[in-house]
Every structure is written in C-alpha cells, then in structure tokens.
Automatic annotation (TrEMBL), chain A:
UniProt record, GO biological process: amino acid transport
Organism: Pseudomonas trivialis
Domain ABC transmembrane type-1: 19-207
PANTHER family recorded: GLUTAMINE TRANSPORT SYSTEM PERMEASE PROTEIN GLNP, MEMBRANE COMPONENT OF AMINO ACID ABC TRANSPORTER
Name used for this protein in its record: Amino acid ABC transporter membrane protein 2, PAAT family
Record key words, sorted: Amino-acid transport, Cell membrane, Membrane, Transmembrane, Transmembrane helix, Transport
Matching Gene3D superfamilies: MetI-like (1.10.3720.10)
From TrEMBL, chain B:
InterPro entries: AA_ABC_transptr_permease_3TM (IPR010065), ArtM/GltK/GlnP/TcyL/YhdX-like (IPR043429), MetI-like (IPR000515), MetI-like_sf (IPR035906)
Signal peptide residue numbers: none
Swiss-Prot/TrEMBL GO biological process terms: amino acid transport
Family designation: Belongs to the binding-protein-dependent transport system permease family. HisMQ subfamily.
Membrane topology: Multi-pass membrane protein
GO molecular function: transmembrane transporter activity
Official protein name in the record: Amino acid ABC transporter membrane protein 1, PAAT family
Membrane-traversing stretches: 12-36, 43-69, 75-94, 181-203
Subcellular location: Cell inner membrane; Cell membrane
Ranges where the ABC transmembrane type-1 domain occurs: 12-200
PANTHER family: L-CYSTINE TRANSPORT SYSTEM PERMEASE PROTEIN TCYL, MEMBRANE COMPONENT OF AMINO ACID ABC TRANSPORTER
An annotated GO cellular component: ATP-binding cassette (ABC) transporter complex
Amino acid sequence: MNELLGLWWEWFPDLLQGFFLSLQVTGVCLLLGIPLGLVFALGVSAPNKAVRLIFLFVVELGRGAPALILLQYFYYGLPSAGITFSSFTAAALALAYCTGAYTSEIIRGGLEAVASGQREAADVIGLNKLDALRFIIVPQALRIAIPSLLGFSIIMFQASSLCFTIALPELVSRASAIGSNTFQYMPVLALAGIMYAVVCIPATIIVTSLEKKLGASSQT
Amino acid sequence: MFDVFKAMLDGVPWTIAVTLLSFTIGCLLGFPICWLRMSPFRVISFATASLVLIIRSIPPIVWLFFVFFGAGGGLLNLSPIAAAVTGLGIITAAQMSEVYRGALSAVPVGQYEAAHVLNLNARQRFVDIILPQMLRIVVPSAATYAISLLKDSAVASTIGVTDISAVAYQVTQQTFKGIEVYTTAALLYLLLSVPVALFSRWLGATLNTRISK
C-alpha cells in the first residue's frame, strides 16, 4: 500500500497537469459549443425550409458521428485540405461541434417548453422577433435547459479523454505514457480514474438533485 | 473515392461485433445489478448504487485501458476485442441497470399487488406479469443507448481492434485523403445506427400490440 502511495505521489504532479488540460479543453468546448447549440436550435426551428434542412443535417451529422471520428476529422482529416490545427485547437473545435449538435436538442426542448403565452405577450407589448427571443424566450428556455446542460457537461469532460487519440497531453495521454514507461499500468490508470471520478461523482449527484428539485417545483 | 469506401468496409464487422457483444453482455448483466440495486438491505443497495456511479464516472477509454493493459497485461491475456467487449460490457451493464430500475418503477403498483393476490409465485410474477410490461418501457431507452454504444465502440480502436475508426486512421496515413476517409467513416456510423432505430420502433410496436390484446 505504501509503495502504491509512493508511486502515486511521484506521478501526481504530471497527471495533475494533464487533468488541468482536460478541464481546459472541456471549458473551451462548452464555451464555444453551447452558444453554437443555441444557434443550431434556432436554425432547426427556422421558418425557412431550406435553412431548417441544412441545420438539421449539420445537427444529425454531429450527433450521429462518434466524437472520436470528429476529433480525428479535425486533426488528421482537414490537413489534407491544407487546414492544419494544433491538437488543442482541433480538440476544442471538434468537441465544440459535438457539444453544439447535442445541446441544440436540449435547448430546443427548452424553447418548446416556454409557455406560448410568453410569445404572445411579447408580441402584444410590441417587441420585435429578435427582442422577444433575446429578452423573453431564450432566458426562460436556458433556465429550463440548465440541468440537462450541466449533465451534458459531465459527459463532455469524460469525452475529453478521447483527445488522447490526437496526441493532446491530457490526463489519459499522460497516464498511458507513464504506463508504457514503467509498465505499471494498473496503478497509474487507477489514479487517473480516481481523478475523473473526483469531478464526475459530486457533479452527477448535484445535477441529479437539481433535476429532482426543478422537476418537483414545475409539477406544483 | 470508391476504393477508400471499399477499404473502410473492412472495419464494419468489427464495429458491429464490439457493439453487439458488449450490448448483449450489458443487457444480461444489467438484471442482477438492478436486482442488487433494489435490494431491501440498504447496505447492498447503497454499495451497488455507488458502484454504478463509479463505473459511469470514469471515461470508457480509461476502463478499456484498465482491462487491456492493466488486467490483460499482468493477470490475464486478453485479446483487444475481448478487452473492448469486457470494458464496454461493464459500462453498458451499469447503464442498463438504471434503465431497468426506471422501467420497473414505471410499472403500476397495482400490477404487483394483483399478481400477489392471484397467488402467483415469484417467478411467475416477474416473468409473466412484470417483465413484459417492463420491456415495453425499456425498448426506446435501450435503443437510444445502443446507438450511443455504437459510437462509443470507436474507442476500441485505441487498444487495437480494427474497427471503422482504426481503419479510417490507417487509410488516412496511407492515402492522405483524410477528408474523404473521415466523412465516409462518419456516414458509416450514421448508416449503422439506422437499422437499430428501425428495429427498436418495430419491436416497440410489436410489444405494444401484444400488451393491448
């Protein structure tokens, strides 16, 4: 046991750097991806049929393709068209697209859940369409969508582990590098697993209780 | 373009195999986990709930490495596909146990009570009364999960399973036609998810008509 703790103590600083990079990628992809999801959600419910179909295709492609394929598309695919990204940029862009595609469905659910009286009221008090969206509809829709968006953020933090495949030195990359250098795969992977769990377990518990609370209050 | 597509097809059986096998394991193993999770003994149900939460809180790629390099390296000698199926199977089992639990609580209490009153034994109560109603509720979420598992199966490529993702990487390195290759790969995954969605709709409809008869 002491031996294990000694190893962990030795590896921890290195893994911690990877852990922060994982958090960073997740943060950037959510910051880019959730606004993108709002754009996709509005695009999919646009009045113009051509616009709607284009957005529907973009969203379905983002949801239908594995995140791993999207990552490799940006990192290994686009260079053949002369577009080259660093692994961090490729990771952030690919995961942002993935986030946008998935969250657009969550946000669309939120938009549809806003009571139709709100739309009518906004119309009656003379707000134009954009202002009605900006001040009345979107804030309420986002509030409804928050628990699901948080739940999705946990999934994206886990998905950031896929950046291992495009040589981003995040948590899994560092763990696997230590593993192949020392052949101590089990202990290092266990430590990496604990570091993911330390974030995801409390986050999952908070999101679940938030969902219950909001679900209960909307029923009364 | 056509030879790229033909080369990519080599990965399809492996993707299907990993997905189907781990889904089957997960669906079966989900039952005992669900049973333990709903145990009247709080210690057992709490321990199971914690285990499920831990399994779901660690990314699939870490589980796969753990099984392949960790357990497979020292203790057992696992082939990449066996390790991938084991790792993804365990994750699926944890997810499915939650799906089952939700479905069980959606079966009306009256059904349990009526089965008791009719003096059916425990096996009959579960197999003849509860299970058919539960399955009807399980099918849509199980299908959604199967499709996400199909996409998650791409991580198997990181431990050497020659699935669609692995072939995409190899072909890109050989031909430098990255855009075509990865577009094809994305479309292949999309195509594979269509039959799952159709099958689930058919199964759902069939189960519903049988219940309403």
